[in-house]
Design brief:
Layout (H helix, E strand, L loop, with lengths): L3 E4 L2 E4 L4 E7 L8 E7 L6 E7 L4 E3 L7 E6 L4 E6 L8 E11 L2 E6 L3 E6 L1
Parallel strand pairs: 2-11
Antiparallel strand pairs: 1-3, 3-8, 4-5, 4-9, 5-6, 7-8, 9-10, 9-11
Amino acid sequence: QVQLAESGGGLVQAGESLRLSCSVSVVLTDFNAIGWYRQAPGKQREVVAKMSRGGSPYYVDSVKGRFTISRDVVKNTVSLQMNSLKPEDTAVYYCHGEMWRASQQYDYWGQGTLVTVSS
């Protein structure tokens, strides 16, 4: 069974840093892509950063230069280092993995971890 478990959320002040981690129950490279989404109150869930199986990262424009996604294929974890946090980064952050099996896409989600940035 594929499971994703996030950790590392919390309350910080603007300008501070947080590191989120996601531990997965399968081999990390089984995912075609793995990364982080977030959902702020009253808004749709959006992709924040993700990494392809080959290791290529993608970032939404609003976090470029501040957030860094990384992975550890030995520990089967993916992390999101968030620097220079802003109040608008406040959201529930979800780890997400995408797999393709028999030409069908499967999406897996963690339970989410709350990040609150105070001004």
